[in-house]
Amino acid sequence: MTAAFHVRAASSNGGVPVLVVSGDVDVASSEGLLVAALDAAGDGSALVVDLGQVTFMDSTGLSALIRIRTVLAERGGDLAVAARSRPVQRVLQLAGMADAFADAESDE
Amino acid sequence: MNVTEPPASDERPRWLQNATLMEILADVRREMDSDTATVLLIDRERAVLEPAATLGLGQATRGAPPVPIGLGFAGRVAQLRRPVVIEDLHPQDVINQILIMGGVKSLVGVPITVGSELLGVLHVGRFRTHDCTDDEILRLTELAYDLGAALKRRFIDDSHVAALALQRSLLPTTLRVVPDGMEIAVRYVPAEGDLGGDWYDAFRLPGGRLALVMGDVVGHGFEAAIVMGRLRSALRAYALEHRDPAEILTLLDQKICHFEPDCLATVILGIAEEPYGEWAFSSAGHFAPMLAAPGHEAAAVPLQIDRLLGVRGPALRRTTRVDVPVDSLLCLFTDGLVERRPALGSGEHDLVQEHLDLLAKSLGAAEDAEAACIHILLDVVGDHVAEDDIALLVARRTPPAPEVVGV
Questions:
Q1: Model-level pTM?
Q2: Are B144 and B102 in contact (CB under 8 A)?
Q3: Model confidence pLDDT, tens digit, residues A3-34
Q4: Nearest-by-Cβ selection for B344 from A3, A67, A90
Q5: Residue A53 contacts B, CB cutoff 8 Å
Q6: Which of A88-97, B323-332, B351-360 has the highest mean pLDDT?
Q7: How confident is the model over B295-353, as pLDDT tens digits?
Q8: Are B42 and B118 in contact (CB under 8 A)?
Q9: Is B79 exposed, middle or buried (CB count within 10 Å of its CB: 0-12, 13-18, 19+)?
Q10: Any CB–CB contact under 8 A between A87 and chain B?
Q11: Which of A1, A54, A70, A90 is the mutation pick for testing B, counting most B CBs within 10 A?
């Protein structure tokens, strides 16, 4: 049984777009995350993703995050993570990427 | 509440997703009025029979080991190429104790052939002793003939053939390289019948060294399997040139970043010299191995986990020394073995830790590598439908053989 994947774009105070992600980020939804993130980033090079409400993340979800970061890095920017749920933190830790993403504040 | 749905029935495991074969087996079981029906298929090297599908023994068959030609019940059917009947089954009659554990008391088996080619063995079992009639043997032989024709058709039609062949070549079910002093058993369970990017490898290196590898390429399908094949070869090549696992993984990382830009992979690599009592491990985003040493509780090896492969930018990679005393079991695995999607509303329940604990318990209780594989798949995976591939490698340091005192 999978928890519904959902994304919602918000704008933080600093004008950097924020994408709030909830549910399962897996093989069925990771492509959706990638598209939504690039959509939210628009022409900009900065984006914050809030992963505090992610209920499950697998390696394809991690793969999507890394690809988002790569695209933003090519534009001279970066991807920051505002919150990490426990499943997200575990995947990042196991992948040796716990410190790979910059922390960001979120209003959520 | 456990929301994970059980398989439609224990008779039709979804991990196999082999509808045609399972339907044929259901027919066989009905026709023969038997309790179990099993198909084993001969491997690429024609040395062992690999359990392919079975009805009536539940999920236990997932851990079934391959049967060498000539040994055990199915091995004898394959070697003799004629029907073999056992009316009152004893443990010494079979290689695969799962049959005994499942309560099978009598067996009749026939070879599956097409023309002069042996494809495998079909056998049916009953949970009681049974005097098999000539008519029954004849009927089973006819069914095996139909099955052989269906398999052959399927092999020709099915577009999975190439992928299957690739997987079989990359993931041998028996490792022939194992040196004296070590014993290795492996298992691979595909996700819902799909082909994935998990791989395991064990190979010897110059100077009597041995390398153990477990890796997982992100993604599924033929593409992931092809990339997996390339990484497997590259890792072997780097291991020939360099001794330090961290250095080998650094080179593999560079190779992936340069040549496979969309690929991510986790790998654990261990290398040891004879007599394999001290291992050097490095992990790129992969679970640390589980170690069960005599007199100690089985536990994850204390290993620094470095970044997975395929992420651009410099990464710190470290090698950790691990003592592996004689009679220890060392278990390498992919995340599919222990990762579970939490049931809705189950909150903070730590399913991964729960399954790591089960794995430790199972490994600690096992006596040898084959038994460890069987029990780990039964205890840790059980009836869970495999959402992700599972690769499992258990290595054991065997005690030295007693010295023969010559005259």
A1: 0.70
A2: no
A3: 788 888 887 657 889 999 999 998 888 888 99
A4: A3
A5: no
A6: B323-332
A7: 999 999 999 999 999 998 889 999 999 999 999 999 999 999 998 877 766 655 678 88
A8: yes
A9: middle
A10: yes
A11: A1
The partner residue sitting opposite B308, judged by closest CB among A55, A90, A95, is A95
Provide the H-helix boundaries in B202-269. Answer: 221-241, 245-259
Amino acid found at B334? T
Contact between residue B81 and residue B119 where contact means Cβ atoms under 8 Å apart? no
Q: Which of A5, A57, A63 to mutate to test the interface with B (most CBs of B within 10 A)?
A: A63
Question: In 3-state terms, what secondary structure has residue A20?
Answer: strand
Q: What ipTM does this complex have?
A: 0.79
- The structure tokens listed for B3 are 């929301």
Name the amino acid, one letter, at B103: G
What was the pLDDT predicted at A33? 92
Rounded alpha-carbon distances, angstroms, from residue B397 to A35, B110, B163, B372, B404: 49, 38, 34, 13, 20
Distance CA B39, CA B118 (A): 13
Tell me which residues of chain A, numbers 16 to 45, contact chain B at a CB-CB cutoff of 8 Å: 24, 26-27
DSSP H or E stretch at residue B253: helix B245-259
CB contact under 8 A, A96 and B344: no
